[in-house]
């Protein structure tokens, strides 16, 4: 099975000899420590193996979802309604001229810093766009492989889930990742504030049980800056509940000096309440390094009592 996983890695990424040797080093360890062949259960193009070199714990099973979903009629209605007003581009040249593509122009128009890089360059996002990236969608005339559909292509980087010594399960790359590379989305079950009843009790538990921190962050509204700067009504507020459903995005741990950044990306809707949360490489990430993002703790908040153990020289001391 491991050889099949490796073959898929090499084929999908067209690895050179040096890269193949580095991946094979991890495969040697995995042979003895593998606890699951593929966390995605075949739902991703590249399998996501799980290893445990720390103890005998088996990773909890979830309802793996490559994309966010909902099983609530009221939420499904809101999603359907928002998608009806999603505009597409008129490009017939596969969007090779960003200054003429309506979707890419929407990203640029909403960007406060007009001199900044305003979108993807060679499938890379080199800096965070706080007002969001607008990808091409099903209403566009361009093809599915146009350069403005980066996150829709699924996970292309070989990833591995592993047991950490301090932070439960984590994830790392099995090859070098260039700066700006799309790594994964954060998916789960879409709910609204009306269905958001479980968080208060969970927050109370966090004060005495640090292991609950990551679980609490699986109930997330990723709308902070977008909502603050918007004059559009934002009720109801939508949340992604990844407590029992989701993808590898729910595994990523926190670091005060992260190697990934979280980016809002609009794909099948332009509703400001409904961006996808997507992770990109903040810098070059060497093979084997744990993938982390910043959970967003604000120093000085008296309600944040959980000690951070990220180990960074820039550690703020508190995680949540």
Q: What can you tell me about this protein's structure?
A:
With 320 residues, this protein is an alpha/beta fold. The chain has a domain at 68-157 and 176-293: Beta-clip-like (Beta Complex), CATH 2.170.270.10. It has seven helices and 15 strands. It has helices at residues 2-13, 17-33, 73-83, 102-110, 199-206, 213-216, 224-228; strands spanning 34-36, 50-51, 63-64, 133-134, 159-163, 169-173, 182-186, 189-192, 219-220, 238-241, 245-246, 253-254, 260-266, 276-281, 292-293. The strands form five sheets. It has a four-stranded mixed β-sheet with strand order 1-2-5-6. A hairpin with a 5-residue loop joins strand 5 and strand 6 (169-173). The longest helix has 17 residues, at 17-33. The mean pLDDT is 81.
Name given to the CATH architecture of the domain at 68-157 and 176-293: Beta Complex
Structural class: alpha/beta
Could you describe the largest sheet, including whether it forms a barrel? 4 strands, mixed
**What global shape is seen?**
globular
What is the number of E strands?
15
CATH topology of the domain at 68-157 and 176-293: Beta-clip-like
Give the integer mean of the pLDDT values: 81
- Beta strand %: 15-25%
Domain Post-SET: 304-320
Domain Pre-SET: 87-154
Subcellular location: Chromosome; Nucleus
Main location: nucleus
Name a few traits of the molecule:
4-stranded mixed beta sheet, Beta-clip-like, alpha/beta, 320 residues, 15 strands, globular
